[in-house]
Amino acid sequence: MSLATLHSIATVAAFTAFLAIVWWAYSPRNRKRFEEDAKLALDDDLNDEKVADVTDLSDASRRDKDNK
Question: Which residue windows are transmembrane per the record (predicted)?
């Protein structure tokens, strides 16, 4: 197998992977999930809860370190 053949196979494989990712990203069954994920950063109530959860976790980890 020549080097040119390997390059051709790699190119076709990469292009096929690219097309598969594009198809997955734009498929109708993922549309709702992606739209919800896009709005996630704009949802203040949910972000406030997540920040509180992260703060609680970091406080708990600090307490664990202090107890050691």
Answer: 6-26
- Check if the beta carbon of residue 64 is closer than 8 Å to that of residue 58: no
Contacts of 47 (CB under 8 A, 6+ apart): 41
Nearest to 16 by CA among 5, 8, 6, 28: 8
Dist. CA 24–CA 26, nearest whole Å: 6
**N-terminal to C-terminal alpha carbon distance within the chain:** 61
Kindly state the percentage of the chain with pLDDT values over 70: 65
Enter the tokens of residue 10.
């790699």
